[in-house]
């Protein structure tokens, strides 16, 4: 999942208000990396970068709170076996 | 086909500037502007209530429509800040207007209340006659409840807007209007009696940024239209950053957005009708124009309307 990890980090970097932490389990919200509006933008950019549509029912901020959670979520949404 | 035949707005005189809030919360003025697009908001005086503001806006709308209160067929008020649980603001407004004997009820949905009220008015007007729709909020009394937070204090303002939905002829046709609700995330924007406002900003913004453009596309699609066919978008004035994101999602230029959130802040359910009233006053809802209304708010609830202005 190295590519996915890199893509996520690269996509979030332009939106980060402070440096993105190395710890994949650190809260991007608590650290102030992404604010409410940044999250809206982040989801839109991640959808575009990864070619995955996040359904409305999955638009729960907790799914996108840490790098690890973001990676887990999109890994589960990207079709495997390609 | 129903028409919108008169608009009105009422804003308290007291202005709360970003400088005052920056001083209160020890934050930079620039931060307030950058996260909200708001420069100032209004605050109701001690004698002002959602009903007094609704009355002032309603009398202007009635005058513009050349209607007497006695000619109304129904009254609907959208608000999230009613000062009592029941009866609602509509009862007080009906008493003040001296328009007894007709349906009067509230839509207690912050932010989206007046859009939902408009949708119901469109259905009621052919059976009951002209419907007065008002959106009225005194959010300051809610956000003053401890703990008073900067996130709420910088965002919300007080005010009221009104319009008349007529079953008769008019220039501004309500071509279509639809709304929907999903209670699954209702707790993320809610208000218990006497308690502080609960607003999970991240959830609200994520959902609004998705649902609002979808509602606009839905109402346009039913008319065989696209966002590019619309001359003016009048949305609930939630926050400038969100409005810009919605414009981006719809691929329309920001110049087609009506914006007054910078001057009044987010006046919740009042904002749509205040904005529509000002847009009409500025001649932006004129012959040949297609205007789209949209709102997202408590419930969650959201919706959109297509107005067609005849020449």
Describe this structure in words.
The complex is a heterodimer of chains A (about 80) and B (about 300). Chain A has about 80 residues and is mainly α. In chain A, helix 1 packs across helix 2 and helix 1 packs across helix 3. The longest helix of chain A is centred in the middle third of the chain and has 15 residues. Chain B is α+β, with helices and mostly antiparallel strands and about 300 residues long. Chain B contains 11 helices and 13 strands. In chain B, the strands form 3 sheets. In chain B, strands 5-4-6-7-1-8-13-12-11 form a 9-stranded mixed beta sheet, with helices on both faces. A two-stranded antiparallel sheet of chain B has the order 2-3. In chain B, helix 3 crosses helix 4. The longest helix of chain B has 21 residues. The model of chain B has no long low-confidence stretch (mean pLDDT about 95). Classes of the chains: A mainly alpha (about 80), B alpha+beta (about 300). At the A-B interface, helix 2 of A face helix 8 and helix 9 of B.
């Amino acid at each position: 999942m190295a590519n996915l990890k890199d893509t996520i980090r690269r996509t979030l970097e332009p939106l980060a208000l402070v440096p993105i932490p190395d710890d994949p389990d650190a809260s991007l919200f608590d650290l102030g990396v992404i604010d409410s509006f940044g999250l809206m933008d982040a989801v839109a950019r991640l959808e575009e970068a990864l070619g995955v549509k996040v359904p409305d029912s999955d638009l729960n901020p907790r799914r996108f709170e840490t790098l690890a959670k973001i990676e887990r979520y999109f890994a589960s949404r990207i079709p495997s076996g390609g | 086909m129903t028409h919108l035949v008169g608009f009105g707005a009422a804003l308290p005189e007291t202005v709360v500037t970003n400088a005052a809030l920056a001083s209160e919360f020890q934050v930079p003025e620039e931060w307030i502007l950058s996260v909200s697009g708001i420069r100032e908001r209004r605050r109701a005086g001690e004698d002002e209530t959602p009903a007094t503001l609704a009355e002032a806006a309603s009398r202007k709308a009635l005058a513009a429509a050349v209607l007497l209160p006695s000619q109304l067929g129904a009254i609907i008020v959208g608000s999230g800040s009613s000062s009592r649980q029941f009866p609602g603001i509509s009862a007080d407004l009906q008493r003040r207007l001296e328009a007894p004997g007709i349906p009067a009820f509230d839509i207690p949905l912050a932010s989206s209340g007046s859009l939902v009220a408009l949708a119901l008015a469109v259905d009621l007007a052919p059976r009951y006659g002209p419907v007065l729709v008002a959106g009225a909020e005194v959010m300051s009394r809610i956000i003053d409840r401890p703990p008073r937070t900067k996130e709420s204090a910088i965002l919300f303002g007080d005010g009221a807007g009104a319009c008349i939905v007529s079953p008769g002829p008019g220039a501004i046709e309500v071509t279509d209007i639809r709304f929907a609700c999903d209670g699954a995330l209702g707790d993320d924007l809610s208000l218990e009696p006497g308690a502080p406002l609960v607003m999970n900003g991240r959830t609200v913004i994520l959902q609004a940024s998705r649902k609002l453009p979808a509602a606009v596309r839905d109402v346009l699609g039913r008319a065989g239209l696209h966002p590019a066919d619309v001359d003016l978008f009048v949305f609930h004035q939630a926050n400038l950053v969100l409005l810009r994101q919605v414009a981006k999602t719809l691929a329309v230029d920001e110049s087609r957005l009506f914006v007054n959130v910078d001057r009044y802040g987010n006046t919740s359910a009042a904002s749509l009708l205040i904005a529509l009233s000002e847009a009409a006053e500025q001649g932006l809802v004129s012959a040949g124009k297609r205007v789209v209304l949209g709102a997202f708010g408590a419930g969650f609830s959201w919706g959109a309307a297509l107005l067609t202005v005849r020449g």
